[in-house]
Design brief:
Blueprint (H helix, E strand, L loop, with lengths): L9 H5 L8 H50 L5 H21 L3 H17 L1 H7 L3 H19 L1 H6 L2 H18 L3 H9 L11 H5 L2
Helix pairs in contact: 3-4, 3-6, 4-8, 6-8, 6-9
Length: 205
């Protein structure tokens, strides 16, 4: 038998031609990709700018605060600081006087006199602060009254009684140095002078 072969079409052997993607679909794909990349770059740029702005704003805020503090800061002289320190201790002396605490009076009186000694340069120029002289005069009167009150002395504990006796010797010896100042104060207690403290009168109440 003779085998006959049917010739296949050339198009079948070569394979059907592939369908090429349309140009409009490719354009949309690349356009979408380009837009996504553009958006990502824009967001990254915005984040960098925000990070750069925030520290600048923070430093600007700190700078404004510092400027405000400097504007409100009041510079006090060395003499004023010394006087303020003495006033604070005088207030403690008077608080101890109110409760008849001679141990506290003695402790704070010693501290006050040390501060006066440290401020002797200012005192030589300005004179004794009037509130200090007033304190010495008031302590003298308070001591005299305490020594006359024998019943109150009997009720004192041992430590308070010893402190009273020590103050009797200490105050009399100490105040001899300031007799003229104390006498001038007693002659005109209402006169105002350098270093007068308005709070002294209130603390006596």
């Amino acid at each position: 038998l003779v085998r006959t072969e049917r010739a296949l079409p050339h198009s079948f052997l070569a394979g059907a031609p592939r369908k090429q993607p349309s140009s409009s679909m490719a354009s949309r794909f690349w356009a979408g990709s380009s837009e996504s990349e553009s958006e990502a770059e824009s967001e990254a740029s915005s984040e960098v700018q925000e990070k750069a702005v925030k520290p600048a704003n923070r430093w600007a805020t700190v700078s404004d605060s510092d400027s405000s503090d400097e504007g409100e800061r009041v510079v006090r002289s060395a003499k004023d600081r010394a006087w303020d320190g003495m006033r604070a201790v005088v207030a403690k002396v008077r608080n101890s006087m109110k409760i008849n605490d001679w141990t506290g009076i003695q402790t704070e009186f010693d501290a006050l006199n040390k501060m006066v000694d440290k401020a002797k340069t200012h005192i030589s120029k300005e004179g004794l602060p009037r509130f200090y002289v007033k304190t010495l005069a008031d302590l003298e009167d308070f001591l005299v009254a305490a020594l006359k009150d024998k019943e109150a002395q009997k009720k004192m504990n041992a430590a308070n009684g010893r402190a009273l006796n020590r103050m009797k010797l200490t105050l009399r010896r100490h105040n001899k140095t300031y007799e003229a100042d104390i006498a001038a104060y007693r002659a005109n207690p209402d006169a105002e002078g350098e270093g007068d403290d308005e709070d002294d009168d209130e603390s006596d109440d």
